[in-house]
User: What shape does this take?
Amino acid sequence: MLSVENLGMQFGGLKALSEVTMKVERGEFLGIIGPNGAGKTTFFHAVSGIYLPTSGKVRIDGAEFQGKSADAFCKAGVARTFQTPRVFSDMTVHDNVRFAFTFGNRGGDASLIDEVIDEVHIGSLRQELAGELPPARQRQLEIAMALATAPRLLLLDEVAAGLTEGEVDEVARLILRLRDQYQLTVVWIEHAVRTLMRTVDRVAVLHFGQLLADGAPAEVTADPKVISAYLGDEVTQ
Ligand SMILES: Nc1ncnc2c1ncn2[C@@H]1O[C@H](COP(=O)(O)OP(=O)(O)OP(=O)(O)O)[C@@H](O)[C@H]1O
Ligand SMILES: [Mg+2]
Assistant: This one.
């Protein structure tokens, strides 16, 4: 579904991503972890047309996409959320999702708008202004907006940030359900390592812009490089 080869993103002297090569297979659920500033969000920007990578290739279903617009990525079935939710504050929940549906323009049925609002559990907030929702609700709205574009690949950037462990588990269940219902390939960036490890099929670890490890959760959790760089004794005890 998605592959990157020697992907690099440089900001002046800073290499936010350096020679990252990896694949996400169709139907797979990949988690991405790594310390603050490791390049996780930059990776999403580079594979959704927000940033033009300074080197390397981005492929969607085998076709080269580096240098294409966010709109082109969207039309190819890539949807994402932002770490800081980007919603239209002075529009209602419904109108935000309707906008995303129109932007996606995949010729589907407009009933998808109401369906995805219900699916992410914000049905009772339909007529509320997006700007008046608390951050956690704005993130749910962003997921609904992403789903309204009828994606095949869903990229989630810290959609469970700031939630309690129980709430993070709920978000994980929601993502799994959405994945099954809409047959999505999912990449989820999250610092809540325990829940993430329990949920995903595979985990990639970014560290100073490099891919430090990539494998099954149990493998990655036991990897000494990962433990010393990031996990410490957080998930090993
Ligand atoms: N537009 C930009 N201009 C300059 N530097 C940037 C830009 N975007 C990101 N960076 C830098 O690139 C590095 C990686 O940032 P990024 O946001 O990808 O990290 P992250 O892994 O998502 O971190 P966090 O867990 O805190 O969200 C950081 O050092 C950041 O300051
Ligand atoms: Mg980030």
Summary: The radius of gyration is 17 Å. The first strand starts at residue 2 and ends at 11. The mean pLDDT is 93. The longest helix spans residues 165-182.
